[in-house]
Specification:
single chain; 346 residues; alpha/beta; UDP-N-acetylmuramoyl-L-alanine:D-glutamate ligase; 9-stranded mixed sheet
């Protein structure tokens, strides 16, 4: 960190979830009809999963939710509190208190809406070897309403921000809030960044996703998410990630002065940066198998690392290198957690 940043320069909206994370056998996943590396919303049949993890396995509680994770990582690298502001909805319970405390400790300025009659959302993080599967019970996170953003203090925070980041996961909760933030970013000519988040978003929430896409300046996604988007769009089945990226950036955009950028990750293969018709590759440092604790939060960490440099006005290649650094660090720790001081050098 060189110069001090304005507080509240970055605003994120998402689903604050308390991660309940534990190593489990594959049979545990099978018992709930889940696959390795799944990212799903809990249905009725999944509801016992949280209690079972706490009672029967060595579960730990971690502050979670994709956007909140990314903001925590950005704050860790920036080493200056309250650069990032987070909006989401929690319940009135112990889990909300844990989330508040974890957000504050990480330097994130969380402004939670509180739903008094709904429990705070939870996410089962099921670790099988180096894989992780997610089952989110949004609960209170689902209760977020645009009224919260319209409160004068919160509206001021949104108006004063310079950068905006929202996950595709939030499309399942409150599209009007996303459109409000996107319109504010556009009116003020400030960057609006979004994440494809999970294949099911493209499969089931394409309409709200396409409504907000014209506002999106930078879109993030991994290969599975990008392919799911391409399939839902009816793009050629043999389109590779580069072709999908080029099509993503070519989708209609309101502010044509600022062409869209796509940043697509593919595990240990190079990150693709797609601008105009040009694709650049950024190599990822491969970790030895024994260094990998679990991949949970690697994508969130990548975005967090990226954002930490982007809000300082750094070039895209520095932003992506920091994203790769952050993802590599997180993979060596359980869940979306970090240890020690950040050691990113441009």
């Amino acid at each position: 960190m060189t110069s001090k940043l304005q507080e509240g320069i970055l605003v994120g909206c998402g689903n604050p979830l308390l991660d309940i994370s534990a190593p489990v056998p594959l049979q545990f996943l099978e018992g709930y009809g889940m696959n390795v590396d799944d990212a799903i919303l809990a249905e009725e049949r999944h509801m016992p999963i949280y209690r079972e993890l706490v009672d029967g396995y060595q579960a730990e509680y971690l502050a979670g939710g994709s956007v909140q994770n990314s903001l925590r990582i950005a704050q860790w690298i920036l080493r200056q509190p309250n650069v990032a502001v987070f909006f989401g909805c929690v319940g009135q319970d112990d889990y909300a208190d844990i989330l508040r405390e974890k957000a504050r400790a990480a330097g994130v300025d969380a402004h939670y809406q509180v739903s008094p009659d709904t429990p705070t959302g939870t996410c089962a993080v099921l670790i099988t070897g180096t894989h992780r599967s997610l089952c989110a019970n949004l609960a209170a996170a689902n209760k977020f309403t645009i009224d919260h953003l319209e409160q004068p203090a919160n509206k001021a925070l949104i108006d004063n921000a310079q950068y905006y980041y929202i996950s595709g996961f939030f499309l399942t909760v409150n599209p009007p809030s996303i459109m409000r933030v996107a319109a504010t970013a556009n009116a003020k000519q400030r960057p609006f960044l979004m994440n494809l988040s999970a294949p099911f978003i493209s499969q089931y929430f394409m309409e709200p996703l396409m409504a907000v896409m014209p506002y999106v300046d930078i879109i993030f996604g991994n290969e599975a998410e990008a392919h799911a988007f391409a399939t839902a769009q009816g793009w050629p089945a043999d389109a590779d990630l580069r072709e999908i990226g080029k099509r993503l950036v070519a989708l209609p955009k309101i502010n044509s002065e600022r062409p869209r950028i796509a940043i697509l990750t593919q595990g240990c293969d190079p990150v693709l940066l797609i601008q105009h018709d040009k694709v650049q590759e950024f190599p990822v440092t491969r970790l030895a198998v024994h260094e990998i604790v679990d991949t949970n939060g690697a994508g969130d960490a990548f975005v967090g690392g990226f954002l930490s440099q982007y809000v300082q006005g750094k070039s895209l290649d520095v932003c992506i290198r920091c994203g790769n650094y952050a993802a590599g660090h997180i993979i060596k720790n359980p869940g979306c957690t970090y240890s020690g001081e950040p050691e990113f050098n441009e």
